Amino acid sequence: MEQSAIPHWYGPDDDVLTVAEGEDATVYDEDGTEYLDFLSQLYSVNAGHSCERIVEAMTEQARRIPYVSSSKHTPIRSELAGKLVERAPDGLTDVFFSVTGSEANELALQLAREYQDAPKVLSRWRSYHGSTYGAAALTGDPQTRAPVEKHAATTGYTKFLPPLDFGGPFDADTPEELAEKAADHLEWVIKNEGPDSIAALVTEPVGGTSGAYTAPPGYFERVRELCDEYDILLVADEVISGFGRCGDWFAIEGEGVEPDLVTFAKGVTSSYAPLAGVLVNEGLAGMVEDEGLPTGQTFAGHPVSCAAGVAAIDAYEDGLLENVRALAPELESGLRSLEDEYDVVADVHGRGFLWGVEFADPETGEHFFDPRVDEGDNPVSDVLAEARERGVLFGGGRPTVQVIVSPPLCATTDEIDTAVEVLGESIDAVF
Ligand code: PMP
Questions:
Q1: ipTM for this prediction
Q2: Tell me, what DSSP letter sits at residue 319?
Q3: Which of 50, 157, 238, 262 has the CA that lies 20 to 30 A from 360?
């Protein structure tokens, strides 16, 4: 379908799939051709495409009262806030709502800088934290940063930490050594920048668009210790990794540390309606109340979105979280079997239902880089096209060249088997 009034940047118009309908982990185009959606439409539709209880809850709320000013109370908003705080990491007592993940990160930045009275923020090179000015300034993906680098004065206040993968700059032989070297480097950055000038460190517990990297064991514990020692707030960006995507309510739980702020979006409503927010500790919540800081937008905590959020959380609790935990080992071993089978698959990393399959030149061992960022081919676009021909949609990570595998939490064993088989056939067809 031609969409001439909607400009886009990700490829020729006729390559863009039109998605018209969906059911569970499957979507259909306008002609009824079906595809397994193994990216959950941007890691978002965690409960699957036909979750009746979410639709009913939204309809019921819209009938009762569709919109209540974000400066007033309304029962559904309070109910969702209570559910979120109950499931949040210990120490987080309050939630501020926004509409998008970018705005949630903007708000986290504003709160952290105000609380600490400090301008700088640490983030990770290659990370993605959003497209608005502040969130893009925080983002380490060069393509997203490029336009704001030119015009936004605040970009200079973000200091980047290197990526945590073995292709990164730390010459480590084991995960333990990588954790130690990366944490030592973090301490060096903190001292070099001046601890008093740094408000916060913002990080994804498990990488998302940059490739589903997990931190080496022990890394986050050292990060927490360093943040405590130098009085820096730890912000976990759980926009992708939260709400069961990695098998827990929030992926930071798997690292055994408690952050000071958590930002969330996408999975909170399973993306049936736009909603995002920031979970904060008592000190930050108190500051907002004492100083009367404005924190929201007109649609922040929209009642229909909150109804979707309450129903989505119930759906996760009623079996979907369980399903991820039960089937994640199967997804992992399927993807690892591709690593054994194809020399070009250099690494498989991730957690729960969020995985990256990374490619490298088998002759040289060099990882491929996205040509939009660095020189080189991007064979992953061909793998994605082959998979789509065979009826499975995956995502592409960047800037290292990866296939991202991230199905709805309702995906079944058969669907996982099919997706892994199709990915293998697609790799075979390209290399
Ligand atoms: N943080 C992360 C980790 C993300 O992946 C994204 C979007 N993919 C965002 C923030 C921004 O969210 P939104 O697109 O809703 O603004």
A1: 0.99
A2: I
A3: 238
